Amino acid sequence: MPKEKEDDTKNIKPAVDSQIQQIEIVKEMKDSYLDYAMSVIVSRALPDVRDGLKPVHRRILFAMHDMGLTSSAKFRKSAAVTGDVLGKYHPHGDASVYEALVRMAQDFSMRYPLIIGQGNFGSIDGDPPAAQRYTEAKLSKIGEELLKDIEKETVDFRENYDATRKEPIVLPSAVPGLLLNGTTGIAVGMATNIPPHNLSELVEATSFLIDNPEATTEDLFKFVQGPDFPTGGFIFDKKEIIKAFSQGKGPILMRGKAEIEETKTGRHQIVISEIPFQVEKSALLEQMAKLVENKKLQGIKDIRDESDKDGMRITIELKPEALPQRILNSFYKYTDLQKNFHLNLLALVDGIQPRVLSLKEALSFFIIHRKEVIVRRIQYDLNKAKERVHILEGLDKALNKIDAVIKTIKASKSKDDARINLMKQFKLTEIQANAILEMKLQSLALLEREKIKEELELKLKQIKEWIEILKNEKKIYKVVKDELFEIKEKYGGPRRTKIISQKAGEISDEELIPDEETIIILTKDGYIKRINPSTYKVQKRGGKGMIGLKTSEEDMVEHFALASTRDNLLVFTDSGKAFKTNIYEIPEGSRISKGRGLMNFLEISPEEKVLSLIPVKKGSEIDSFLAMVTKKGVVKKTAQIDFENVRRTGIKAIKLLKGDLLKQVVRVEKGDELIIITKKGKSIRFKEKEIRSMGRVSSGVRGIKLSANDEVVAIQNIVKEKIQKANLLILTSNGSGKKVKLSNYRVQSRGGSGVITLKVNEKTGEIVFAKILENEEELVIISKKGQVIKTELKSISILGRMARGVRVMKFKTGDQIASAVCI
């Protein structure tokens, strides 16, 4: 290629279209997204603080008003309304328009429905409405109040989407719509959730705020008690409700109306007649059924929906043994019979600015809007009245000189000529002259002439009043208040939702558990379960009992304890550590079930061996101590409060000497006595004050001096008030037992060898269980192989310290008593 041509090619520049601009893509994406976000916020998702409506709702109401669908008109197909809204004002999907129309007609969604629906408009069960071609609609009376005076230039209009007609930017709204029916909506990066309120309360609060502009939201709660849901129910905690409305956001606890009734047969049933707002009845019933199906809730015989045209009625039939209040509490905790309404009072201010508002601010903006509407309406009426007065004055002039007027008209060549002649001769304006020319002959009658004079006087009087109102702000506000009270008189009524001033107590898992006796069984291999004592039938002493637990050949029962389902269980291990769990968390098993591994509840290492189970009543920590005894006779007393907060990994309870193991722990109070029993038949009784209180990491002091091959079996607390009447129950490994009067044991100083409590030999076996008896009536014994016998304590004889006892339980070969409890 020639050199010249190369140079020419390099100098060629691409043509640039003057309409194309180079913009950074990041900036364009940011700007476009912000435009989209603002479009969603302003044109779809958020309500206007002035009329409380989103654009779609406003357009539906205005279209119905335009179609003449007032409350007194005939119904029209919903499809006709939807089509009108879509074609003229709302260029979006018909589904969104119809859904908005349906909601405004549902008495369970709107506290004051703005539309009257005819046909299937859905139900509180969550059933969808019929197709729009089947349903019909028109404005309700209170819906008309939102559009009242719209033709009097009370609000600004703008062009619709295709500039073929005008639509209102906001409705005049004679009621505070934002709070009246509430709304919910999700925009970009923000959401609104406003509950409905009682009209009468809103009117009273608005009137008070007009008179007292400095009032706070808390002051307004003298009138507005809180949300008033169309579905009724209860809301709790007045202080939290006031706080939420002061900040514009916060939770409000709702609860359905449920009552416990007694049937003619003496059984109980729960009847639910009101449910929380926005809860579907069918979904609530499904939640209840799942609780029963999953066995999370017992005692329910049947759940029935008996709702009809007269109202809602859900009946839960209970079994005879059921505890109604606990079942009801379970419903509150696990179903939507109780739920929070998360208030977020977000609305558009000035039509474009989203703001979270307090109750006072929401009502203040409504007052400003209402004042502007009334000023514009009065100004409109004033202008129209002045125009009418101008015409009436011309007519009055003409009627006073009617003969001359007629003569002038007859002498004129044309209508235009007549107008000019009238204006010149009688000093009339063009408007007055036209009115005279259009006047009917019947106006010449005496009565008609009087009517014109009366109308003129009335109009002049009205003009004077309206001018005075416009000059005086107080009079404008008086009109606002008067009109609000008129609306209250028409549509106001009592609250549906009741307010409970105090806070609704949080329903803990523990509250749902019946407070009843239970037996805890723990095996050597670490399987634990709890079982109702009534499972075991009372037998005569000396029997074989029944199977109480399925154990493997290598496993055996080691611990047996009586407790309440509301108690805590302190678990002490041979390493001197303490663990803690709630007894109700231990699964209830059948009589022969194996139970579940203790590792599921406590972080006990496989090397640790459980030596003692101590049920502790909640709240009993104050002024109480735990007395511990080791296998080698070391005793220690530690404040129970030290075990209030136990980590999942356990805490140190006692410092053990080499070769020693923790044996048993009992609860003791000041003034009590303690008795230690050994397996070889020795015991020592001493006062608790002989042991000073020590910290958890200390090792303790000598409680009893042991002979060779002997070890401690138990330590028991003797309550000071029952020292004179108490008996000591002794059980041996081979099934013998006896009761010994406590008076047979003298009080000694701790650390001695003690006295004989039972003569141990091969026939009796060693002592395995000892218990100070108080009001117990029955004894439940479990063997190492899981056999259980339940017998009456009165069947066991009271004998002396040296006696061997009587046969309490008979065993199969190789079996022995593992433990026992008294109930």
Characterization of the model:
This protein has 823 residues and is of the alpha+beta class. The protein folds into 4 domains: 53-172, Topoisomerase II, domain 5; 257-336, 2-Layer Sandwich (Gyrase A, domain 2); 376-499, Orthogonal Bundle (Topoisomerase, domain 3), CATH 1.10.268; 513-822, DNA gyrase/topoisomerase IV, subunit A, C-terminal (Neuraminidase), CATH 2.120.10.90. 29% of the residues lie in helices and 25% in strands. It has 18 helices and 41 strands. The strands form 12 sheets. A 4-stranded mixed sheet has the order 14-9-8-17. The protein has a 4-stranded antiparallel sheet with strand order 10-11-13-12, covered by helices on one side. The chain has a 4-stranded antiparallel sheet with strand order 21-18-19-24, with no helix packed on it. Strand 18 (517-523) and strand 19 (527-531) form a beta hairpin. Helix 8 (199-211) packs across helix 13 and helix 17 (446-471) packs across helix 18 (473-491). The longest helix has 42 residues, at 359-400. It is rod-shaped. The termini are far apart. 39% of the residues are buried. The model is unreliable at 1-6 (pLDDT under 50).
